[in-house]
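Justification of resources, computational component.

The compute hours requested in this renewal are based largely on the per-chain cost of generating structure records like the one below. Each record pairs the submitted sequence with a full structure-token output. That output is archived, and it is also reused by downstream analysis tasks.
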Amino acid sequence: MSLAQTPPETSAVTGLPGVAIVAKIRRVLIVAVIGALVFPTLMAASRSYCPGGIDGSGGFIDASGQPTDEAPVCIELALAPSPLVYVGIAAIVLLTLGRLMKANDEAAALQTLNRAVIGIVVLVGIGVVVSHLWFSLIPMESFTAHSWSIVHPFPFGTIDVTTTPLIVE
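The structure output for this chain reads:
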């Protein structure tokens, strides 16, 4: 009997089978939650325009400086996130999980999960850029007291319109 120490045979611990897939699923879910929280934060914007004002004698004037009997109508626009973006994020996650169940091998599953992360980031990014660009291009000066319409950046954002008469304090 030899007393020489023999190193025990160990195998590298790799964890459960499919641990890489579980880690990528976790990443997709984290990116989806972060995207759903960041999107409304980046979608907050507002603009307002009040054509006309008050002349030196306390009367109202319109946008071209002519006296008028009624107070000019002030218009306020507020950009808000569209609920359809949240539906899109949820659809990406659910469709990805469905495709994972049909994946042939681990490489295909990992590629599907990577594409889901890219899809969520692109959806949120395009939603913010398109909505803000669209919102900034709305011609506020063309609104009159009786004529206005707004086409909002569907499906990425919604625009709430509020009209109020000019308030004199």
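Residues 106-136 form the longest helix (31 residues). The chain has one domain: 19-165.
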